Amino acid sequence: MLRIVKTKLGIVEGIPAADPRITAFKSIPFAKPPVGDLRFAPPQPCESWNGVLQCYKFPPMPVQPSPLRNPPPEDIYAREWAVDPDIPVSEDCLYLNIWTPAKNADEKLPVYFWIFGGGWQVGHTAEMEFDGERIARRGIVVVTVNYRVNLFGFTCHPELTKEYPENPANMGLQDQQAGLKWVYENIQAFGGDKNNITIGGQSAGAGSVLCHIANSESRKYFNRAIVDSGFIYNPT
Questions:
Q1: Which pLDDT score is estimated for 83?
Q2: What was the pLDDT predicted at 67?
Q3: Residue 42: DSSP 8-state
Q4: Is 163 helix (H, G, I), strand (E, B) or coil?
């Protein structure tokens, strides 16, 4: 099984999933941490690293309102999604996770790139519903991507427009696109086929998929799309 992989930026080491035929690589960086002067900036290319990066744990969730603790029985949404209220929260959140069943790098397996939902206000990749192991057992390389949400991902302001005239808003969508580009450029090392990438998402993740379908830059990096409980909004 592929446990150690050399990406274009450095070497990563994964761990066996519950099914040891699957290797999970968690918290692979795909962009610079969006902190300090980069807090409201478009995602910047990730820097390379030395040595072996141990990708054993999920990344922190993006900054967002705290999940409910001990929600009442009638709050079905919170009881389903806020399973673990103690997952760390950090602005340094631009990481993705990969589950691969490949035994070697030249298998060219299909790739599924998943975008979580949450109204573009909340959400993260560590929720148990988004674990990619079960799909990976079907011979698919699964990727889940973190992106900035809420204030940090979707603020629009004249000062930001002035500073980043080419990409002034929707940093969360730009994060997704940066992750997708990273996957296109690196997924073959994990046994995936960069020419057979399907993007998918649920709720706001599905809305994100629609945005990427409509974006000519994003369309360079995927072939198919799955829209799960998405929406199309026409302001007119």
A1: 66
A2: 62
A3: P
A4: helix
